[in-house]
Amino acid sequence: MNAALLNLLRRLVRKGNLTVFSSSGEQVILGDGSGKPATVRIVDAEAEKAIAVDPSLRFGELYMDGRAIIEHGDIFDVLSIAKVNGLEHAATVSNMLVALQHVLRQQVMSRMPVNRNRHNVAHHYDLDRKLFNLFLDQDWQYSCAYFEPPGISLDEAQLAKKRHITAKLLLEPGQKVLEIGSGWGGMAMYLAESSGVEVTGITLSEEQLKISRERAAKRGLSDRVRFELQDYRTVQGRQFDRIVSVGMFEHVGIGNYSRFFRKVRELLKPDGVMLLHSIGQVCKPWATNPWIEKYIFPGGYIPALSEVLPSVEKTQLLVKDVEILPMHYAWTLRAWRQRFLARREEVVKLFDERFFRMWEFYLAASEAAFLYDKHFIFQLQLSPSLEAVPFARGYIEAKERELIEFEKTRPPLEPVDI
Known about the structure:
Nonspecific Lipid-transfer Protein, Chain A, Rossmann fold, 47% helix
């Protein structure tokens, strides 16, 4: 086995039960024997060198290419052992230099004036719609579900998420709502049907735009729910009673937070309310994992709250409520991953084996991040007005009870056309 890789593994893998076979057939058993065992075979000597130099990027690439093979357990088990031991933060001199290159490149790109948002969004969200139908819930909610009460199904948890957010928006019939990052239209349709509001949803994905318009027309909502292909920065000449953004803030980029909240303040009426739902981290990450940034979410960045709130404060928007959901995305990702694995043959037929392994790695790595890196969801409720939101949180639960009664009479959702 490559000497640098062997030294790295022996020095860092102290917990767990990991067996590694080198390209020469050498077997190395690592860890303290605890937990679920996993075995990795590295196919060639060049792969060993690549992992030793840049494990955070190259291991995922080699797994995609079939040059790092999981022979016992699965990729989630291997990544869990890596997370427990901090293996992706391996601190050799060469790794530190490579990591610094990743950080500098991402920090510079996040501050570039050239708008690549549409390109970045298309990279992920304009894939064949059949792919998302394989693992999402019936409403195609591609953000963290809300497993309250615990143990409910993915579909029930995604409905609970929409209900919880709607309750925090304090909607009144006839109000105008802006949804920044409208996905496949499910949230906008729920807001309109449950609360009698008019919703404008904006997206940078042409495929999401097409599907959203199809769904709204099918439900007879085209007069109250409109979708536009537009960047939030270009919305002009309008103000809204409410603004909601779910799972989009991760794509804004740390260099644009002040611009984002200034725009929210500009678009929100003086007594308006905004609900922002985003992934967060417990400390400043400085950069996204380079494999995720390259293959899954180019331009993405998951902030610490300490990086977000200063930009909110500069706009003099009042933080009316902060809620932290610490485990709900891990449960969501596990459900997605299990569904995705169960449809392997269909994914391979749509794309190929390499694509399947890429998305398996993405879902497994994301779940591991929420379990071991303590990623979480935060919901920020913002308003320019002191009195726009009640001074105690009881209204949220009361409104959720009302929405549950509405859901009993709501016509069932039609499957998304694929």
